[in-house]
Amino acid sequence: MRLCTRVGSRPRISGASARVGDNGCVQVLDFRGQRCPLPVIGLAKAARSAAPGSTFRVLADDPAARVDIPAWCRMKKQEFLGATEYEGAPAFDVRVS
C-alpha cells in the first residue's frame, strides 16, 4: 500500500507499508502531540469529506486515542481496522464506510 497524502505537523510523504483502501492508498492523519479530543475531531472531519472505502492511518500519542478512536468508529459505523505502531507512534487504521 502507498500513502497518498499526509495531514498534520509532519511533512507529506509517499510510499510505505500499511493497509490499503479501495482507492489503493492511505491518508495519514498526524495528530502527535495533540490531546483529546483533537485526534477524534480531526478524524471525523477527514471522514466527512472522504469517499466510502477511503482508509486513514491516524497517528496519535495521546493515551485516550486508544479508546476514543475505536469508540468513535463504533458510534459512527466506520470500520476500525486495528492499532499498530508507525514511525514510532501509536497508529490507528480506519476505513470509511
How would you describe the overall organization of this protein?
- The protein contains two helices and five strands.
- It has 97 residues and is α/β, with parallel strands linked by helices.
- It has one domain (2-27, 38-81): Translation Initiation Factor IF3 (2-Layer Sandwich), CATH 3.30.110.
- It has a five-stranded mixed sheet with strand order 1-2-3-5-4, covered by helices on one side.
- Strand 4 and strand 5 (89-95) form a beta hairpin.
- Helix 1 packs parallel to helix 2 (65-76).
- The longest helix has 12 residues, at 65-76.
- The two termini are 19 Å apart.
The CATH architecture is: 2-Layer Sandwich
Assembly state of the chains shown = single chain
What proportion strand?
25-35%
Order of helices and strands: EEHEHEE
Number of strands: 5
Q: What is the number of helices?
A: 2
Arithmetic mean of pLDDT = 85
Named CATH topology: Translation Initiation Factor IF3
Q: Please compute the radius of gyration using only Cα atoms.
A: 12 Å
- Gross geometry: globular
Q: How many separate domains make up the residues?
A: 1
How many strands, what sense, and barrel or not for the largest sheet? 5 strands, mixed
Distance between the termini: 19 Å
Q: SS-based structural class?
A: alpha/beta
